[in-house]
Amino acid sequence: MTDKLSALQLYAIGALRIVAGLLYFEHGTQKLFGIPIPGPETLGMLSLVSGLLEVIGGALIILGLFTRPVAFVLSGHMAFAYWMAHAPKSVFPVANGGDAAILFCFVFLLLVTTGAGALSIDRLKGR
Prior knowledge:
Strand content: under 5%
Structural class: mainly alpha
Distance between the termini: 30 Å
Number of helices: 7
Radius of gyration: 16 Å
Order of helices and strands: HHHHHHH
């Protein structure tokens, strides 16, 4: 049974990468374009940079292009976001709204170590 599951590992990593990328991308489109729900009326510099990282980085993660370096940058982005925006509100992630930032941070760290998995441009190019 373990051998059969191990054979699916690259596909599981690929699926995780695509879903995480889509969710991350959506955070950026909300900030920058008000899609799928209205975002902030005005963007400060940090929010603008975050939105750009989320849209561009999310798209690259979805495609599996330059996955390791992009995931490294995005993991740092989420760590920064957690400590700057969420942690000051409460020590508990569920109370400060930072649980998604923590999860994104560690999913991206996983992608740094595993690579893009299946169904990625990186894998097609042999990176």
